[in-house]
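Hi,

Apologies if this is the wrong queue. I'm a grad student, and the batch job for Histone acetyltransferase from Carlito syrichta produced an output file that my downstream script rejects. I'm not sure whether the problem is my script or the file. Here is the sequence I used:
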Amino acid sequence: MPRRKRNAGSSSDGTEDSDFSTDLEHTDSSESDGTSRRSARVTRSSARLSQSSQDSSPVRNLQSFGTEEPAYSTRRVTRSQQQPAPVTPKKYPLRQTRSSGSETEQVVDFSDRGHLTGKHERHFSISGCPLYHNLSADECKVRAQSRDKQIEERMLSHRQDDNNRHATRHQAPTERQLRYKEKVAELRKKRNSGLSKEQKEKYMEHRQTYGNTREPLLENLTSEYDLDLFRRAQARASEDLEKLRLQGQITEGSNMIKTIAFGRYELDTWYHSPYPEEYARLGRLYMCEFCLKYMKSQTILRRHMAKCVWKHPPGDEIYRKGSISVFEVDGKKNKIYCQNLCLLAKLFLDHKTLYYDVEPFLFYVMTEADNTGCHLIGYFSKEKNSFLNYNVSCILTMPQYMRQGYGKMLIDFSYLLSKVEEKVGSPERPLSDLGLISYRSYWKEVLLRYLHNFQGKEISIKEISQETAVNPVDIVSTLQALQMLKYWKGKHLVLKRQDLIDEWIAKEAKRSTSNKTMDPSCLKWTPPKGT
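Support response: The file is valid. Your script probably expects a header line. Output copied below for reference.
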């Protein structure tokens, strides 16, 4: 019955920039407006790589221009330049991110003077810091002047070519472009085959001195032409971020993830989630809906999906009825998956504080199966050993499955596990706004069902708790909210309000055809040892 976990495969592909400019005399002017779509796409990936250049190895940085990535039709699910200021030390949190999704953080002092683009007097993120890129503010200004001059010359050459070419739909490269293509190929052949011993020592000394607080030295790792393309992409990406900041679309330290591409859906996020900075600043994340790995672009996601072997969550399948399944995932055995699940959940939960310390928890992931795999509906987590008998630490229903009864199914399943354990459970506080609404609705339904089937004259809160596994405190608060608990002549009385019971019966009759209920007979589970 149980389906055991699988390990997702991953790989990275190296990609090389190419660009055919119309300017023969100026080798540096590589970003032609007539560049092929592949060149533009690679240049953008280079820009994103520049923002995550704090990875530990300089060689790894250059080899990771492309990584894994599916093209889905998506549905949308909703819920002025500043004046120079006195130079003050500024602290930036640097996060070193591995493919696992985990991160380590250290704080480094940088001056906020200068900008990588050479057009601003101050910077507000690491991507714009000259010192991080092993440059000075004056060097950035000189490079900016050189770029502007080359852009003007390129535009002039484009106008000249347009005057000499017919307005055909499929235009062949000009003679100047063909000559430049040959020159670029010749320049790339001149790249050094390897680093000398002195260069390796210099690189190692730089890494030992600065660690992840500065970008690795990149000279002699590739051709000068490709390195210049990479530097230009870094400057362009930094300029785009600065424009967004000046327009007020982002603020210093703010979370920029606005949407995520998740399977067939495009989801608007609700709250901040502490994804690594190089991902958070993108504004849009692409996620594998099976292994929950997060990526920077649609291309990476498409490549990843072509290789990803996961079709369901890791761990044991402990419940299945129809297309609905529940998997028990151990945070200690599947740490990366659970960390990614917590980061995803934080985008839609306000009070969640657990992200990386997942080992003491079990995660119960509900999915809906079709011919493509098991799609994530929601999940809840619980401590392996809870001294207060909490049966839920965190609970989430994905936005595309909300208001369809799945949240109540997750809650019902958590109490079903408590019944098997022969314990009384309660959710951990504080509850989110949507969580509180869902739990109050569930408790109301449980109490009305119990009172409808109860035939005696005297009722006990303790008996209700033992039969339903609901904590007595939650039972009393629900009865008070329903105005069914009264204090009369020194005794507490439970009023059996028939109007509420009749209303509940009518709703149940309408929902009788739906399959949004948990069947205890479909649960194949024994409590983990030590709980």
